[in-house]
Amino acid sequence: MGKDEKGTKKIVAQNRRAYRDYWIEETLEAGIVLQGSEVKALREGRVNIQDGYAQVEGGEVFLLNVHISPYAHGNYFNHDPLRPRKLLLHKREIKRLIGKVQQRGYTLIPLSIYFTRGKAKVELALAKGKKLYDRREELKRKIMEKEFERGYRRS
To answer: Where are the domains of the chain?
Structure first.
C-alpha cells in the first residue's frame, strides 16, 4: 500500500501481469460503485484484480471477475466477492471506449485500484493482448539490455 508524491493516492492493488501480457494503448481513471463491506475490505487490501476485466453493457461499464474478499466483521451484511461492479465514467468516455473495444479488438483491464481523497478509483487500460512470440521477443530484448549494461560497466 503505497502513496504517490502528494500523499493523496493510496494504492490498494496492482495488476503487475498486465504489462507483461498486454500492449497498453491508453489509461483512464474511473470511480467504482461499492457496498460498505467492500470498501472496508478494500481498505484492508483484500482484493485480487489479476483476472479482472471491464465490459460495456447497455451504455454502462462494469468491472467483472475482480475478487474482493468478504469483510471479516461483516456478518450477514457481507457482499458477493465476484459480483459485477459498475464503473463511473462520462458518457463521451463510454462512447469512445465502445468504438475502440468493438472495432479494433481491444479489451479493458484494471491496472490498479486505489483511494484518492476517500474515493475508491480504478485505473483502466485499453489494451491489446500480446502473442507468445511478442513476450519472448520482449524477454530477449531485456536480457540483451542487461548484458550490454554489464559489459558497459566493466569497460
So the answer is: 9-130
